[in-house]
Write a structure and sequence with these properties.
With 311 residues, the chain is an all-beta fold. It has one domain (2-310): Distorted Sandwich (Beta-galactosidase, Chain A, domain 5), CATH 2.70.98. 2% of the residues lie in helices and 46% in strands. It has one helix and 26 strands. The strands form six sheets. An eight-stranded antiparallel sheet has the order 9-10-11-12-26-22-21-15, with no helix packed on it. A seven-stranded antiparallel sheet has the order 6-14-24-23-20-16-17, with no helix packed on it. A hairpin with a 2-residue loop joins β9 (100-104) and β10 (107-113). The longest helix is centred in the last third of the chain and has 6 residues, at 272-277. The protein is globular and about 50 Å long.
Length: 311
């Protein structure tokens, strides 16, 4: 594995690569992955906003107007919300937190403590010798001294084209909000059929959007497969940590963006306080921690081997 450290627009970028895959990570931006490129396919899997530069945002900044793309994570919340008597900003703390970094054998480690929640966060990214797959080892520990309830959500913004398909074995789904859908029926439905439409298929850039919760899923895998069935982006994870899937896709409605975001999530619905009442969010007591592994695959479909139960 080859490691290279550069500076882009004042942001430190660490680049790692093997025979098939290269990825870039920005520790200053909450450990955001800014590129995921398959060499033989000559394909960049991640979408990014060409209208803004890569930059460090101040804590409390508005997320949507600063939405750059790539793979970031939401922790400890999505919408601004007071949880456990702590007022959290838009899309949480992690995306504006500068993490320390270390190049380690086989990969890169980033870590830091979120200032408001007191959650310690560590992410180790390991790139195997010849596979287009990143093994991501996480630790989240509650160092606040009091019990914390939160949402932890993976958040991969992908390049899409008409005919691409979201692959999920979720049995049921519901629309997140009336303003974030191309459909009128707000009732729960059997995924992926709604209003005689296969919602898993990416439409043309037609000025609409989708935002779904997906659940009752027998498999801890979430994928976006290309129209031609040749390549795929896949998350594999521990379903005990991420029991839900959220799927956001803008087909032009959100700031003219054309991207789909795959979001394995630890909570549902969007408000953590509502999820807490339902027993559907993450909770850690003082000193308690989560240790888990997520695998990110970006490459040919025939090279993907699904083993989420072994994570």
């Amino acid at each position: 594995m080859k490691i290279e450290i550069t500076n882009r627009e004042g942001v430190l970028i660490i680049r790692a690569e093997n025979e098939q895959l290269s990825f870039e990570i920005a520790p200053q931006l909450g450990g955001r992955i800014t590129s995921l490129y398959h060499k033989k396919l000559e394909k960049e899997f991640l979408w990014y906003n060409k209208g803004i530069g890569l930059a460090q945002n101040e804590p409390g900044a508005d997320y949507d107007s600063n939405f750059w793309g790539g793979i970031d994570e939401l922790l400890p919340n999505d919408i601004p919300e007071t949880i456990d008597s702590v007022a959290y900003p838009d899309h949480g703390e992690l995306w504006t937190t500068q993490l320390s970094h270390e190049v380690i054998p086989g990969g890169i480690s980033v870590e830091g403590t979120l200032p408001l929640s007191g959650l310690y966060y560590r992410k180790i990214l390991l790139l195997h010798a010849s596979e287009p797959e990143i093994e991501v080892r996480y630790k989240i520990r509650n160092d606040s001294g009091t019990r914390r309830h939160f949402l932890w959500k993976l958040h991969a913004a992908l390049q899409i084209q008409e005919g691409d398909r979201l692959l999920s074995k979720a049995k049921r789904a519901s629309i997140v909000s009336a303003g974030s859908t191309r459909f009128k029926n707000m009732d729960e439905f059997s995924w992926p059929e709604i209003e005689n439409t296969d919602a898993s298929l990416v439409p043309a850039k037609d000025g609409t959007m989708d935002f779904f919760y997906l659940y009752d899923n027998p498999e801890a895998v979430m994928q976006m497969q290309s129209k031609n069935g040749e390549h795929v982006f896949a998350y594999q994870y521990d379903q005990k940590v991420f029991p839900y899937q959220w799927y956001f896709a803008s087909y032009g409605q959100f700031n003219d963006h054309y991207t789909a975001i795959l979001e394995p999530a630890s909570a549902m619905p969007v408000r953590v306080n509502d999820a807490r009442k339902l027993g559907q969010c993450t909770a850690l007591g003082p000193g308690e921690e989560i240790d888990t592994i997520v695998k990110i695959y970006a490459g040919p479909v025939d090279g993907l081997h699904l083993h989420p139960d072994h994570l």
